[in-house]
Amino acid sequence: MESHRSPQERVALERRIRVWLVVFVVCLVLSGLTAFPLVHEVRWVDAMNLPGALGGWIARVREGVDATDAKYPFVLYGTDWLAFAHLVIAVAFYGVYRDPVRNIWVVEFGMIACVGIIPLALICGPIWGIPSWWTVIDMSFGVFGIIPLYALRRMIKRLELLAASPAAAGTPLPRH
Question: Within a domain: residue 131?
Answer without folding.
Answer: yes
